[in-house]
Write a structure and sequence with these properties.
The structure holds 2 protein chains of 2 kinds.
Chain A (H helix, E strand, L loop, with lengths): L1 H9 L7 H6 L5 H6 L5 H31 L4 H13 L2 H12 L3 H25 L3 H9 L4 H31 L13 H4 L7 H29 L9
Helix pairs in contact in A: 4-7, 4-9, 5-7, 6-7, 7-9, 8-9, 9-11
Chain B lengths: L18 E8 L9 E8 L4 E5 L6 H6 L9 E6 L2 E2 L5 H5 L2 E5 L10 H5 L1 H5 L4 H14 L16 H13 L5 E5 L7 H18 L2 E6 L2 H7 L2 E6 L3 E6 L1 H6 L4 H7 L3 H8 L12 E3 L4 H10 L6 E3 L5 E4 L2 H4 L16 E2 L4 H11 L3 E5 L5 E6 H9 L1 H12 L4
Parallel strand pairs in B: 3-8, 3-9, 6-7, 7-8, 11-12, 14-15
Antiparallel strand pairs in B: 1-2, 1-4, 4-5, 9-10, 12-13, 15-16
Classes of the chains: A mainly alpha, B alpha/beta.
């Protein structure tokens, strides 16, 4: 996208170059600048789709993980269930939901949420399981209750893995959310898959570029959060 | 089996409690033999009791039942007069220090926060916690600036000391220590052990200390319980008693063939019958000194000043004169003290290649003479004692 802007400046004197559009060149900067307004709403919708799906997905996966952490036998069925949801092809999932929840954002969010569960659940479990047994032993040996051990020791120590899961889930949700348009769920997909647009290269590249930029921003935000939330990881041995 | 003598040593302890195991049994599911069977043990308040034995002997299980990290099947453990089952486990554990081999410091908490763990659980106010953390950092001789560091930034030895400080934070009457120095290299282990003994002399906690290392047990323990697989205590005795009179072949094997040598580490020079040196004073007629020599245990006269402080050994040549000279032929090196550890005294004798060394008391006055011969006689004698003792003090099964 950066190169697109640079290119746009070069050809600024010739913004609405009809030839470029006519020839359906790989990217027509003039058209992009003139039509940037139409991308605002889809971008906002896309952000909402991603935040809602990852947010709800995290809430559900977190609950499942805490249950499985406390009641070990649950962990395998939970892994299997979220795994099944994860393996359903995304498009198929959207259409499967149509008769139940109808067309619209809700359907999109349900499907997207379902996809995040496996990644987030598995990472929370990995994080909790990776807490060294001696730290757990020392904790309960000093009189932390199970709950205190979980919230004060295990979850903080699992944070890097949990955030790693959120990063993967968020980035992939940004990508898959472009399919929400098929159930009328809005998002950047509207500018890609809408009839007549599928062949227009500039439009597809612009929408795709915005999606990539969004993924990068979310990812950076999570990395930054982790950096400040886990100062001990940066502590250098002296 | 163990003599139930509640030693008076615990009297100076600030709230230390005795710990009493009464017929405690633990059997893990799926295991034929019990991990701990009918364990009865009394640890007087303020003492260090070492549970020692080969791996799988149930020593750690025995310890962990005290703070209910492992629940016993039957029997009871009393802290003072109260059963450990009187309170919920988490509450009980906050009143028992807990130190493990891997230390288990919380990596995401600073050193100060780690030490404050139990005080925070107990709901102390900030100022009290801060003051206590400072006090403990001082007690374990750690630079207060390290309080803001994370565990990963400390050396293994420093982490272990922080582990001890964390266990002491709420001033618990009882401490449980599971191989606390097991992961430390030998040189630092020695230092940490000494440091801990110095600390214990101050704090006088009742300590259950688990180790597989008999040398550590002898060094750290006021009393040692030697356990064997199946969780049975073969002998519960003081280190000296254990070395002098192993109750049976198992204990004898476990203590090691060099147990006589180990005993030297437990003894002071004062504990042995010293020889008397024929003393000579400056200006005394040599004839008098010669007369003494005939009946003396030590064949050389020791020149002392008028305060009976040793000046040196007199040689044949010195005695050739009429009166005792004020400058002896050989300096009295080494001079030992009655409080020297016997093992060090022997090392000293061997190192300086001398056969006799004068021993002085706190005022540097001569107290006697130690010789390699005395020590070797002592080393060969315990064998005779062993048989008498094991016959009378073998634990009834």
């Amino acid at each position: 996208m950066t190169s697109g802007i640079a290119l746009a400046q070069v050809v600024l004197h010739n913004r609405s170059n009809p030839d470029c559009i006519q020839r359906n060149d790989i990217f027509c900067p003039g058209w992009a600048i003139d039509n940037i307004d139409r991308y605002v709403d889809p971008t906002v919708q896309h952000v909402v789709l991603v935040l809602a799906s990852v947010g709800i997905g995290f809430a559900i996966a977190f609950t499942l993980a805490l249950l499985a952490h406390r009641y070990r036998p649950l962990s395998t069925p939970f892994l299997a269930a979220t795994g099944v949801l994860y393996t359903i092809p995304s498009i198929a999932f959207f259409f499967l939901l149509l008769p139940i929840t109808g067309r619209g954002r809700t359907t999109a969010i349900i499907a997207l949420t379902a996809f995040t569960l496996q990644i987030i659940y598995r990472n929370i479990m990995t994080g909790l399981n990776n807490v060294p047994p001696d730290i757990r032993d020392a904790g309960s040996g000093m009189g932390l209750t199970q709950r205190q051990l979980l919230w004060r020791v295990e979850l903080p120590l699992a944070l890097p893995e949990i955030i790693a899961g959120l990063r993967v889930a968020t980035v992939s949700t940004v990508a898959i959310a472009t399919l929400a348009v098929f159930v009328n769920g809005g998002g950047l997909g509207t500018e890609i898959y809408t009839a007549g647009r599928l062949t227009f290269k500039t439009g597809i590249i612009l929408a795709g570029g915005l999606a990539i930029a969004m993924a990068l921003v979310f990812d950076f935000a999570l990395v930054t959060f982790q950096r400040y939330a886990t100062p001990w990881q940066r502590a250098v041995p002296t | 089996m163990p003599e139930g003598n509640s030693s008076a040593r615990g009297s100076g302890s600030g709230g230390a409690l005795s710990v009493r195991y009464e017929h405690v049994t633990k059997r893990y599911p799926g295991s034929d033999s019990p991990a701990v069977e009918d364990l009865t043990l009394e640890i007087p308040a303020g003492d260090i009791c070492v549970l020692v034995g080969p791996s799988g002997c149930g020593k750690t299980t025995a310890m962990r039942m005290a703070n209910r990290m492992v629940e016993m099947d039957s029997g009871d453990i009393l802290l003072g007069e109260e059963s450990v089952r009187a309170r919920p486990p988490a509450r009980l554990r906050r009143e028992m220090g807990y130190v493990i081999q891997q230390v288990g410091l919380f990596p995401h908490r600073t050193i100060a926060q780690n030490i404050a763990t139990v005080p925070i659980l107990l709901g102390w106010d900030r100022n009290r916690i801060d003051a206590r953390v400072r006090e403990l950092l001082e007690l374990i001789r750690l630079d207060p600036a390290l309080g803001e560091r994370y565990p990963a930034q400390l050396s293994g030895g420093q982490q272990q000391r922080v582990g001890v400080a964390r266990a002491l934070a709420a001033d618990p009457p009882v401490m449980l220590m599971d191989e606390p120095f097991g992961a430390i290299d030998p040189i630092n282990r020695e230092r940490l052990q000494n440091e801990f003994l110095r600390l214990q002399a101050e704090i006088r906690k009742t300590i259950l200390f688990v180790t597989h290392d008999i040398d550590e047990a002898i060094k750290m323990g006021d009393r040692i319980a030697v356990m064997r697989v199946g969780g049975r205590v073969e002998q519960y005795a003081s280190p000296a008693e254990l070395l002098m009179a192993p109750a049976d072949e198992f204990v004898e094997d476990f203590v090691g063939a060099d147990r006589a040598l180990k005993r030297l580490a437990l003894m002071r020079v004062r504990d042995i019958d010293l020889w008397e040196a024929p003393l000579a004073y400056v200006g005394q007629p040599t004839a008098e000194v010669r007369a003494k020599l005939d009946s003396a245990e030590v064949p050389y006269p020791l020149l002392v000043d008028d305060q009976r402080r040793p000046l040196g050994w007199l040689s044949e040549r010195d005695l050739a004169a009429d009166i005792v000279p004020d400058r002896p032929d050989s300096a009295p090196d080494p001079i030992l003290e009655v409080d020297d550890v016997m093992r060090d005294a022997l090392a000293n004798l061997l190192q300086t290649e001398t056969q006799y060394a004068p021993v002085v008391d706190a005022g540097r006055h001569i107290a006697g003479v130690l010789s390699v011969e005395i020590i070797s006689e002592f080393l060969t004698s315990p064998e005779a004692k062993t048989d008498e003792h094991s016959a009378t003090e073998r634990p009834h099964d």
